[in-house]
What we know:
Elements: E1 11-18, H1 26-37, E2 39-45, E3 48-54, H2 57-60, E4 63-67, E5 70-74, H3 78-87, E6 92-99, H4 103-115
Antiparallel strand pairs: 1-5, 1-6, 2-3, 4-5
Amino acid sequence: MMVEMIERERAVLITFTVHTRKFNSMSERNKFYKELYGWKQIVKKEEKRYTYRREGLLDEIPHVKIDRSIFIIMKRHMDRMRRFFEDWEDKIKWNMFDVLLDEEREEMLRRCLDEG
């Protein structure tokens, strides 16, 4: 009896810790978070308020957020994430771990790719 093997795509669990004291300022630390997660900008003009969503790297890369500084991405996006974290390497500590997702979480990431 031949068992059909379904090729499952690998994912990567990424964790990071920010060393606040190593940043030159809180502004620089906030820049790290904004570049990663994006941010909401509110502009007041006269009596009106305009809200804009400024995208970060994780707006472009489908991911599953596990906790504040832990998320999972598909391995095919790891090069972009690695470059980003290496740019901040002197101020943060980061690790990555290969993981195999259950079918539900893998499908969730695939849907994000299709919608993006």
